[in-house]
């Protein structure tokens, strides 16, 4: 899939604002972004590649983080990671489950912005880790007492000390008539094609972190498709055709 170099007006404004902030980075000053989604990181790196006088580091608190912060500093200075830490969220009943949306909703209800929260990771030994900017960690620990219907307790931990679950995605296997984005969304979320088409045209679908408005967009292995408010799919593998000519594939669904 080729996206070309065209940017939306919103993306152009984002890059312009980011470049203005970079101009404030002087000999003894550095700049840290809040958490960026993958598209924003892509836009930021396009600008940074043209700034030979600057260097930067990228960190989201965990391997393969989806949301990352960027630390920018003069090229002649030693680099540091962005100020990202983890808040460990635990609850007494280990049999009970708190979902990603429950945790995110509980934190945002405290008055925080979405870009102050990074990835939310379910832990192998139970509980969850919120990747957050260091400046907000104490605030969350003091004020977050409940997520979903469960009482929780919070503590600040070094992300490197966490035992992160390898993969909390659900695997979906099935067949589709084609690799169109509307077909995969219909399979992955169990929705009718007509409803999916309305969602796409309504601006609710993002492919590889680029907004799309065409139901006929063709996908390939490795592509990510986000349906706002419902979750994200990854097209993991295309496994040939059935006798009737339908395409067998495997998806991962993150909710």
What does this structure look like?
By secondary structure, the chain is α+β, with helices and mostly antiparallel strands. The protein has six helices and 14 strands. The chain has helices spanning 9-22, 38-48, 100-108, 134-143, 181-189, 193-201; strands spanning 31-32, 54-59, 69-74, 84-91, 117-122, 128-133, 146-147, 150-157, 170-176, 205-207, 210-211, 224-227, 231-241, 247-254. The strands form three sheets. Strands 9-14-13-12-10-11 form a six-stranded antiparallel β-sheet. A five-stranded antiparallel β-sheet has the order 5-6-4-8-7. Strands 1-3-2 form a three-stranded antiparallel β-sheet, with no helix packed on it. Strand 13 (231-241) and strand 14 form a beta hairpin. Helix 1 (9-22) packs across helix 2 and helix 5 (181-189) crosses helix 6 (193-201). The two termini are 24 Å apart. The mean pLDDT is 88.
Task: Briefly characterize the structure.
24% of the residues lie in helices and 31% in strands. It is built from 6 helices and 14 strands. Helix 5 (181-189) crosses helix 6.
Keywords:
single chain; alpha+beta; Ribosomal Protein S8, Chain: A, domain 1; Alpha-Beta Plaits; 5-stranded antiparallel sheet; 6 helices; 14 strands; 24% helix
What is the total domain count?
3
The strands making up the biggest β-sheet line up spatially as 9-14-13-12-10-11
Number of helices: 6
For this structure, what is the CATH class of the largest domain? Alpha Beta
Using DSSP, what is the number of strands? 14
Biggest pleated-sheet summary: 6 strands, antiparallel
Question: Which spans have pLDDT < 50 for at least 5 consecutive residues?
Answer: none
Global structural class: alpha+beta
The SSE order reads HEHEEEHEEHEEEHHEEEEE
* CATH fold call of the largest domain: Structural Genomics Hypothetical 15.5 Kd Protein In mrcA-pckA Intergenic Region, Chain A
Any idea what the shape is?
globular
Q: How far from one another are the termini?
A: 24 Å
Second CATH tier, the architecture of the largest domain: Roll
Computed Rg: 20 Å
How much of the polypeptide forms β-strand, as a percent range? 25-35%
